[in-house]
Amino acid sequence: MATISNVVLKIDPIVSNKRRKVTVSYALRFNSREELAGTVFEEKVVLRGDDPIFDDDRAVIAATFIKAAAGTIKRSFTQQVSQNRLDEDGDTIIFGVPVLTLRDELYARVSLTPFAPRSAQADSEPVSGQFGPGA
Known about the structure:
By secondary structure, this protein is mainly beta.
């Protein structure tokens, strides 16, 4: 299986709005079988809240596909994310004044899943009318 290494999460403010610039960078290395087969992977980068009981997904930074290739492949994705999505440990506010501000703990999860073709299906909108003889 491919290896993912050196995952780095960086969150920077964006001037003039209530969003943050989230950048996740990392390196990929595929094994020789994946390279020879030209295996395609679903690649997903998710920003997650780090909590004692359960971690939750806060934002998808990237969802794409990548084909196995030789050597180390450096990847980087940047996405603007609302401050509300990053505020995974909500503050306590009374009468509009923050009285308890909790620190947020976030991390990036990078996953590679071998791509498997799936069937697809779609339906039309129903059509109504008299379709029998004598219509």
